[in-house]
Amino acid sequence: MNTLGDEEVARLDAWWRANNYLTIGQIYLKDNPLLRRPLTPEDIKPRLLGHWGTSPGLSFIYAHVSRLIGRTGQQAIYLAGPGHGGPALVAAGYLEGTYSEIYPKVSLDEAGMLRLFRQFSSPGGIPSHVSVTTPGSIHEGGELGYVLVHAFGAVMDNPDLLAVAVVGDGEAETGPLEGSWKGISFLNPARDGAVLPILHLNGAKIAGPTVLGRKDPAEVRSLLEGHGYEVLEVSGSDVPGMHHRFAATLEEAHGKIRAIKEAGWTGARPRWPLIVLRTPKGWTGPEQVDGIQVTGTWRSHQVPLAGVKENPEHLALLEQWLRSYRPEELFDDSGTPVELVRSLAPAGELRMSANPHANGGLLTRDLVLPDFRKYAIDVPAPATERAESTRRLGEMLRDVYRDNPDSFRLFCPDETNSNRLGAVFDVSDRAFAERVTDADVSISHDGRVMEVLSEHNCHGWLEGYNLTGRHGMFATYEAFAMVSASQTVQHGKWLQEGDRLPWRAKVPSFNILLTSTAWRNDHNGFSHQGPGLIQVVLTQRGDIARVYLPPDANCLLSVADHCLRSRSYINCIVIDKQPQLQYLDMDAAAEHCARGAGIWSWAGTDDGSTDPDVVLACAGDVVTMETVAAAQILRERLPKFRVRVVNVVDLMTLPRRKDHPHGMSETMFTELFTDTVDVVFAFHGYPGAIHQLVHGRPDADRFRVRGFIEEGTTTTPFDMTVRNRVSRYHLVMDAINNAKRLPPGATELKEWCERKLAEHAEYVVEHLEDMPDVRDWSL
């Protein structure tokens, strides 16, 4: 099908050749960027890094999407699933002029081209993959599997946006990508934008064939049609013919998308188009090297000619390869791309490398947030009333949904009601584009609450939503946040690097709510008991990582309000969904959260006139209850034993201020923990985290931390604390063992605690529940 005129073919092909030339130059050259003289070994980088094999296909697609944008005015962003095709996307931004606008030293001339080449995958330069430094990118290419989830998140509540998502056939083998085809089951064409997946099958990954590349094309088509797509296919390596065929197919796909969008919701999920593009791996590169086939095989994946500095034949082959693109036709005498090349790029912000949706902070609007205080729980006295804390948060999120109909979403793996956030269904159903039955509850085609039984999808959707300027929250069971923990790490890296780039505007924070925690998953058992994500977030750099452990509902509301207002952080909030004791009224909670930590004088026996005998510290809801109960035991049975209770809600206040911006001052640390008194610290997560955080504080060895030590089973809530040695009785014994001054009766109290633990062990086996004095305990 010939839909292109000769002039259009010439423009497309010139741009593509220029992009391929710049891609190869980034991988190989440190000098002689325009080949004004024959190549010498001195022109070659000392280390050859980068990935050629996927790059020509990526730039071929980019060229054609640019042409489509120029013809239609379509707002579009480009997401490169094969992220190690980084040089192709960097080159694309350079040819569009965006790169030089952002990085003026990388100018559109010979000197700028040389800098472009030298910086690639070099010390002090840029990574070899598509990353935060790449204009137009919202997708970190360092880990495969997430291109579609980011694309679908980007277009939610973004009706005019087209996300072109290139899926590599190696990436298509990952679990996250395999689950992400289902994104079309949650898009509403009237309210959301569109995703155009382009499955790029070049047949090979780093050292062998790909599954989909070797499958019969009919099987691949059936697989994708089974997911609900209308599959369009293009294949070949004949350059002029491929330009004609792909242009026609891309226009057909775009026409189908526009028809779907214009029709809006018709009562059935539309069959969105998907393109399968088959091209040789390493297309237009050296066919053979040393008599061995390279193009079309895994050998073209990275650096097809690895010995160019030492092997004159390889060096000559590299020069022949570079000159095959006829650079003298593509760049003028100064090294500037000629008009034929530059004319392909759309104007201004329609350039995919300059589209503001790919720098979402530019589009971010503050949420309209209600006053969190109006959802407060009445607390007549500390530790006397019980409530489901997350249920109050659900009421707050309901009103956030109502007041922000196109800029806030909750993402949850089928657990919104389970996590007590179901109040959001008062104003929005679950989103679903598949068949809805009369038996369904709070499910509709117009819903905006995102539930799918995939942590990867939920996490990635929110990342795409955040990075294009909108706000949200990812709520999941604590243990299964580890399913998507590497996504948390990758997103943290993106935010960290983005913070160093002045042209990257800050985006809404990635807010994680962990419920169904290790300490209360008594019926699910050991598989559901694991606080590991706290440790993951703590490893992120201090200017990004935030971990909050609100002990009750009012603290949770205050923390959530703060997180929803923040920018470019990873906020991890951990609190259980079960009924729990409430400690602070709203005024006290807001003050406590603002400070991050504080002394609960009502819980201890410390009057502040002198140092206490021991400090009982806590961070986390269940361990806070155990700490307050332990303090009560000590207060009643050892009334002359001075106990100070410190609760920590913002975990990042514990490090020194030079180690984290939330770190409390030395004066405040001393006011809370003293400089010499032993601290028994009951922690929600793994004990080592607290030792890590207080490193460098006065006499850090005096901190004795109790926390989750991988002891768990299907058992009672209190038995979980016993198994992990963080029960009230263990804390009392720890206080006695670590205090420098013991009053009369301490030995007898330790023996009493041992008897209570023995009594507990017998009681839970006999009665299948906790002892009444534990189960119903309050102050």
Automatic annotation (TrEMBL):
- List residues of the Xylulose 5-phosphate/Fructose 6-phosphate phosphoketolase N-terminal domain: 5-362
Q: Which UniProt keywords apply?
A: Lyase, Thiamine pyrophosphate
Which branch of life, at top level? Bacteria
Xylulose 5-phosphate/Fructose 6-phosphate phosphoketolase C-terminal domain location is 577-778
Q: Which InterPro entries does the protein's record reference? A: THDP-binding, Transketo_C/PFOR_II, Xul5P/Fru6P_PKetolase, Xul5P/Fru6P_PKetolase_C, Xul5P/Fru6P_PKetolase_CS, Xul5P/Fru6P_PKetolase_N, Xul5P/Fru6P_PKetolase_ThDP_BS
Pfam families given for it? Answer: XFP (PF03894), XFP_C (PF09363), XFP_N (PF09364)
Would I find Lyase among this entry's keywords? yes
List the cofactors. thiamine diphosphate
Against Gene3D superfamilies, the record matches this protein to: 3.40.50.920, 3.40.50.970
Q: Which positions carry the signal peptide feature in this UniProt record?
A: none
Instruction: Give the family, as the similarity comment puts it.
Output: Belongs to the XFP family.
- NCBIfam families linked: PRK05261.1-4
Supply the name of the protein: Phosphoketolase family protein
